[in-house]
Amino acid sequence: MRRNKLLIVIFALAVFGLANIACAGIIGMGTFSGNDNNVNAIETQIEAWFKNNGYGAIDVELSIYAKVDEPATTKDGLTLTYDSGKKTGTWSTIVPIDFFTVKASNRYYIYWVNQADTSGNWTTAGLTNNGGQQPKISHLQTYTWANRSVPEPATFILMGIGLFVVAAWRKRRHPI
Fold it and tell me: Given 51, 105, 117, 155, which residue has the most CB atoms within 10 angstroms?
């Protein structure tokens, strides 16, 4: 009986604790120099980030969804809002996107929209201009992931715990 309670507690912790990891939201992937108009370079940077962060070798094929250049607020299904300094704001799309880049000065920041979404916040924090100051946004570009198939680490852990619980239950009901 004590073992069953322990298994139930482990399973509950896994479901409620690790489920939050799998729904991480918007994840910053880093700052890069240059322009974000080369989709192949963006794909390579994203693939390197996945590999360096424990996701393994993942092939990323992006399609550009839409791009809005400041001071515009909407284009091709992408809508932006800006604060008064044009250093933060919100974005929204008609269809879920998987990645977006924020371009400011001579740098851009890549964001992964884990659990593809249709809205979120953007910022130029983490980007600096040649004077070392946080610049205003130049543009925001969104991407969809054409060949998405990334199993989350939490998914593997939950699956393993589930298999363990089933095996323990089966062994108890049908001892060898």
Answer: 105
Question: For residues 155 and 152, what is the distance between their CA atoms, to the nearest angstrom?
Answer: 5
Q: What is the pLDDT along the chain (176 residues), one digit of tens a residue?
A: 555 555 454 554 444 444 434 445 899 999 999 999 999 999 999 999 999 999 999 999 999 999 999 999 999 999 999 999 999 999 999 999 999 999 999 999 999 998 889 999 999 999 999 889 999 999 999 999 988 765 555 565 666 777 777 777 677 776 66
How far apart (Å, rounded) are the C-alpha atoms in residues 52 and 34? 22
* Alpha-helical regions (H) of 71-152: none
Burial class (CB in 10 A: 0-12, 13-18, 19+), 103: buried
Query: Which amino acid makes up residue 65?
Result: Y
DSSP code, position 86? S
Q: In degrees rounded to 5, what are phi and psi of residue 54? A: 85, 10
CA–CA dist 98, 22 (Å, integer): 15
